[in-house]
């Protein structure tokens, strides 16, 4: 980490604090840093010095390196071009997000017939960009055309198939490795 340009670690700090179920006051007490300063760090209005980051990491039972790595992973900016195809995937199936992130997105083009039943841990949204699909969810068939969406909460069994040539279906979901919070 460059001492002249401290890393933005707010989201990683907040995520770690919540994972440990700690309040800002407890982290402040453990680290010797003030609650207002910690709040500013978490909300990206302040960047901790290397010394403050070390104190904060110790209070959160981790290392400064782990916090920085977690922060960098959440800051990924990546462009997936229209013509790109991922190796190992069948023709007409393209990831819209590369890597392991909280969001999973795929594009299915052509006369795809998924055939098999799916059940995902977290919520997902299916959007018909072109053409039409038929989606069976919880024993009911739903016909969707261009511009239509279908939302499925986590755990809903479903299957889908394209019903017109040239169909493009976008599937956006909270990744399976993400622990959904109860509301």
UniProtKB/TrEMBL annotation:
Domain HTH cro/C1-type: 13-67
Keywords from the named record: DNA-binding
Pfam families documented for this protein: Cupin_2 (PF07883), HTH_3 (PF01381)
Organism superkingdom: Bacteria
Protein name: XRE family transcriptional regulator
Origin organism lineage: Bacteria, Bacillati, Actinomycetota, Actinomycetes, Kitasatosporales
